Amino acid sequence: MLNFRSVNIAAVLISIILLAISILLEHFLWAYILLFVIWLFITVAGSFIVKWNYHVSSLNHDMDLKERKIAITFDDGPHPEYTPLVLELLKKYNAKATFFCIGEQVKKHPNIFNQIIKEGHTVGNHTYSHSTNFGFFKTEKVIEELAMTNEIVKETSGKIMQLYRPAFGVTNPRIKKALSVLKLQSIGWNVRSLDTTSRSPDVVLHRITKNLSKGDVVLLHDTSSKTIIILEQLLLFLQKQDIESITVDSLFKIKAYA
Q1: What DSSP string describes the chain?
Q2: pLDDT-derived band of residue 42, with 50, 70 and 90 as boundaries?
Q3: What is the mean pLDDT of residues 216-225?
């Protein structure tokens, strides 16, 4: 399995072999440089591609699911304007979803957050600040961010969250340690919509639906009018295809709250 531990073990073993060969051969430095470049490339890629489960074991999709069900997930809310619109659409099409919320946003919009839960959707931790530097935080700072969000959610709703969505999809050994300390399960995705890019709603919708199949986890963001357009078209598509949208805890048969 391609993960941080196995790659490091392989790199050490290859280094030992190269060392043995270099005793017999001169000018062998290029091989060490090549090994380091390959190791660095794999490790950086693994830190940003959540589906690899390189540092952290995330639940990305259920390949064994027999029922025609998927999980729609939303990151970065709750948003005062767009999250209520998302909730209206989900209710209209009798769909359930999972909202990975930023602690600062929960603190600003507690009523919307509680509405998400009241309407039967699941909530999870998406850090407190969603800082662009989150991947460089020390372990103690990562723990602080996730613990703060869980505490705000507990005070707001009484829920003790057990699910975490990696900010920007980034994972590393420090984040892995923090999740272990706080006993949080990482939830990834296997269908990345790219709804926050400049792509048109039609292009994003096609990206989501072209190979959509049972057990998939779709990543969206409840932070823009474009996503509202995409969501309604997606829900219509699911209705026509007789595919049900459920929460990730239902999809993976896990507990969302302690």
Answers
A1: --SHHHHHHHHHHHHHHHHHHHHHSSS-HHHHHHHHHHHHHHHHHHHH-GGG-SSS--B---TT--SSEEEEEEES---TTHHHHHHHHHHHTT--EEEEE-HHHHHH-HHHHHHHHHTT-EEEE--SS--TTGGG--HHHHHHHHHHHHHHHHHHHS--B-EE--GGG---HHHHHHHHHHT-EEB--SEE--TTSS--HHHHHHHHHTT--TT-EEEEETT-HHHHHHHHHHHHHHHHTT-EE--HHHHHT--SB-
A2: confident
A3: 98
Active site residue 121: no
Catalytic residue (one of 79, 121, 130, 221)? 221
Enter the pTM of the model. 0.90
Contacts of 69 (CB under 8 A, 6+ apart): 214, 215, 243, 244, 245, 246, 250, 251
Annotation marks residue 62 as catalytic? no
Show the tokens assigned to 86. 């998302």
Q: Poorest-confidence range of 2-16, 162-176, 242-256?
A: 2-16
**Residue 2's pLDDT band (cuts 50, 70, 90):** low
Reported as a single tens digit per residue, the pLDDT across 78-92 is 999 999 999 999 999
Which residue in 75, 216, 222, 249 is the catalytic one?
Answer: 75
**Higher per-residue confidence, 245 vs 34:** 245
Q: Report the Cα 117 to chain-centroid distance in Å.
A: 20
